[in-house]
Amino acid sequence: MNIPMLDLKKENEIFGERIKNSVLEVLESGIYILGKKVKEFETQLAEYVGVQYVAGVANGTDALLLALEALGIGPGDEVITTPFTFFATAEVVSRVGAIPVFVDIEPDTYNLDPKNLERAITKNTKAIIIVHLFGKIAQMDEIMQIASKYNLKVIEDACQALGTEFAAKKAGTIGNIGCFSFFPSKNLGAFGDAGAIVTNDETIYERVCQLRNHGSKERYIHSYIGVNSRLDELQAAILIEKLKYLDQFLLKRREIANHYTHELCNIIKTPSIIQDRTHTFHQYCIEIADRNQLSSYLNQKGISTAIYYPIPLHLQKAFRYLNYQTGDFPVSEKVSDLILALPIFPVMEKTQQDCIISAIKDFAGVAE
């Protein structure tokens, strides 16, 4: 049995002719940039997550970059974030000339640990980028209290967490700005790159709308040095159709995750579930000491695996100029050595999952 990390081809069969018809509608309209489909998707996403404003952008990385620029973060400023995340989270901080400051993670959630937050704050700290990693929301009440105490802006990197909730609020809506990616593998995936910024602040929204369009609100009149980062009309049309299935797909992810945990929790470390902090399982990650051996064993049986993330950001070559050393963030470093992602996707069949579970039990020498 060949089991991929995700199966987009099979997933897309669910939408049938709906996406084809929606794309054809765009093609026939002759309007391909910031047309009615983008506006329609922005309105629907705003309603889904529960915010006043949504601005579609070209991808999740641009969403983070434009969020920083909309808040006026620049040279000399410090932005606190986690070293255990995808590179883009800290990359954008450097791109605006600011300094990434890392804070270690909680061992059970892999999210930034609020207990370590205050000691990293200096007079130059202007913002915190919180990552809701793998679809599990961070400890936002404590984080927001600290941010308020020091008058810091909070950007939520919710690129992996659309639909995740904390105390009845959806990820991306708790801080000043929420950033989403619709990369094909995400909870809501486009047929290419796409992203969005969400906020309840009209000033932030209006500035993002200008920044994404060369700093322009009126054609050929430019208030800011912006970029070309507009959500594509075709991708918006696709996302409108896929958004209708999002909650159904998230429920399926949770069902698959629950089955994994029920079968494997006595063999390996499985993802934790914390009260009031939901998990939408963008990834299902386990920890095991002989991670590389297990990965090879599963791959030999046709079972795909992935490592998110093998090198924490503070040890990446690109961030050597920050002068972090091995041992500075022990939890992140330990997790990087142990973590392994198993296949999980909404159209996954139970026979596929049972095959994976059986293979892991065989590897661990556990009789079924």
Overall geometry: globular
Coarse structural class: alpha/beta
Count of individual helical segments: 12
Q: State Rg.
A: 21 Å
Percent helix, as a range, is 25-40%
Strand order of the largest sheet: 1-9-8-5-4-2-3
The amount of beta strand, in percent, is: 5-15%
- Tell me the distance between the termini: 19 Å
Number of strands: 13
Q: Which stretches are poorly predicted, pLDDT < 50 over at least 5 residues? A: none
Mean pLDDT: 97
Describe the largest sheet.
7 strands, mixed
Order of H and E elements: HHHEHEHEEHEEEEEHEEHHEHHEH
Account of the protein in words:
- By secondary structure, this protein is α/β, with parallel strands linked by helices.
- It contains 12 helices and 13 strands.
- The protein has helices spanning 8-13, 17-29, 36-49, 60-70, 88-95, 140-149, 202-211, 233-243, 246-264, 291-300, 330-338, 350-364, and strands spanning 53-57, 78-81, 99-102, 125-131, 153-157, 165-166, 169-170, 177-181, 195-199, 216-218, 221-222, 284-287, 339-342.
- A 7-stranded mixed beta sheet has the order 1-9-8-5-4-2-3, sandwiched between helices. A two-stranded antiparallel ribbon has the order 6-7.
- Helix 2 (17-29) runs antiparallel to helix 8 (233-243).
- The radius of gyration is 21 Å and the shape is globular.
- The two termini are 19 Å apart.
Please name the defining characteristics of this protein.
single chain; 368 residues; alpha/beta; seven-stranded mixed beta sheet; two-stranded antiparallel ribbon; 37% helix; globular
